[in-house]
Write a structure and sequence with these properties.
The chain has 395 residues and is α/β, with parallel strands linked by helices. It has 13 helices and 13 strands. Strands 2-8-7-6-5-3-4 form a seven-stranded mixed beta sheet, with helices on both faces. Strands 9-10-13-12 form a four-stranded antiparallel beta sheet. The protein has a two-stranded parallel ribbon with strand order 1-11. Strand 9 and strand 10 form a beta hairpin. The longest helix has 25 residues. It binds glutamine.
Length: 395
């Protein structure tokens, strides 16, 4: 009898993505999907027109592996403004298949098996799997609610223990924290002192709500050469399915990252890069308007949650909200339930999909679920109606 050869030990050490799993279950039951963060409205029509044109005019063959030239030039212009320095599109950018590949590519580029990397908790769940796939050992630094503050002493200790890098998601998925300039300067100073890297994931850079402001780590004095920025076009242009991401960093790192990226994926889709150049060239008013739209959505959704009486945090950035479900878990019918069980129950019985908070925390956390509000007003209204029914159970 044939016996299936064993798989790598690596794949046994992490589960499939809880975020993506919730989308699958949500689709199966036809629920309103507020779990995986992506918009239910169209990308800018100028980009769709560009895409239609590309269909006939191309390009349809491999792009340059580290990104089409005009795409990198447009990126260098846009992000150069944000970072406050000229970015060389030839040597300081790699275009990747989404922010997901960007982060994986950095980890494979900077980590040897056994290297330590600091990760805040809560964290975007991919970082856990990225660490395992690259062989890095995470050191978790708690972000302490309600303000999601951190102990700088623990970060210094992590560097003293040899951490090679710290990963910062800013603004932070799932807790919506926006790191202040001051906080970033303090972390940056330590990274410089201990000759370490800062890896920043800034995919929500345009969703930072007043009075908070986004600061690029790479823009801080002395930090450019120690910072590798992961970013993506997914959220900014509502094109999560186009899978366009990128890395910006110092030449030496990017040169190595280009090789990793090339052998992992060869390149991001050429026609989509071409069409997306239109978006990268939008004037500043596009980003101002995007922020206005998301600020309204945030305020509207939070007001709805308040009216229902669901307890939640107030995100400073991103389109995620953490809801406290303890009042439900205290009811006899949910006694002893995990947050995952509760989320599955919600999909089936309430018709709203959320992500169980435990998938973001190193600590034992069972009382939070994550919802997002990248949805049309009608969708948000219907989701709120359904959530109000859920709340009736707990009054
Ligand atoms: N960042 C999004 C989220 O947290 C999802 C990204 C993804 O699924 N690749 O929901």
């Amino acid at each position: 009898m044939n016996v299936m050869p064993k798989l790598s030990e690596r794949v046994g050490t992490f589960t499939d993505s809880v975020i993506r799993r919730m989308t699958r279950i949500s689709d199966e039951y036809g629920a309103i999907n507020l779990s995986q963060g992506f918009p239910d409205f169209d990308p800018p029509h100028e980009m769709l027109d560009a895409l239609a044109k590309v269909a006939y005019e191309g390009p349809h063959q491999y792009p340059i592996t580290f990104g089409a030239e005009n795409f990198r030039q447009a990126l260098a212009r846009k992000q150069g403004k944000a970072i406050g320095r000229a970015i060389d599109p030839e040597t300081e950018i790699v275009v990747t298949c989404g922010g997901t590949e960007a982060m994986m590519c950095v980890m494979m580029t900077i980590c040897n098996p056994g290297d330590k990397v600091m990760v805040f908790s809560p964290f975007y769940e991919n970082y856990g799997a990225d660490a395992i796939l690259s062989g890095a050992a995470p050191i978790y630094i708690p972000l302490v609610p309600p303000e999601y503050t951190f102990d700088l002493g623990l970060i210094e200790k992590g560097f003293q223990e040899g951490a090679k890098a710290i990963i910062i998601c800013n603004p932070s998925n799932p807790c919506g924290k926006v790191f202040s300039r001051e906080e970033l300067m303090q972390i940056g100073e330590l990274a410089l002192r201990y000759d370490a890297f800062v890896v920043t994931d800034e995919v929500y850079e345009h969703m930072v709500y007043a009075p908070y402001r986004h600061t690029c780590m790479a823009s801080l004095p002395g930090m450019y050469d120690h910072t590798i920025t992961c970013n993506s076009l997914s959220k900014t242009y509502s094109i999560t399915g186009w899978r366009l991401g990128y890395l910006i960093g110092p030449e030496e790192v990017i040169e190595a990252a280009k090789k990793v990226h090339d052998f992992l994926t060869v390149g991001a889709a050429a026609p989509l890069q071409e069409a997306a150049v239109t978006g990268l060239n939008f004037p500043d008013s596009y980003y101002e308007n995007l922020l206005k739209i998301y600020t309204e959505k945030r305020d509207y959704f939070l007001k709805g949650l308040d009216e229902i009486g669901l307890k939640h945090n107030v995100p400073q950035g991103t389109y995620f909200v953490l809801i406290d479900i303890q009042e439900f878990l205290d009811l006899p019918q949910f006694s002893g339930w995990t947050d995952m069980e509760f989320c599955e129950w919600m999909i089936r019985n309430i018709g709203v999909a959320a992500v169980p908070g435990s998938s973001f925390f190193k600590e034992e956390v069972n009382h939070l679920i994550r919802l997002h509000f990248a949805r049309k007003k009608e969708t948000i209204d219907e989701a709120l109606r359904r959530l109000a029914k859920m709340k009736e159970l707990a009054v």
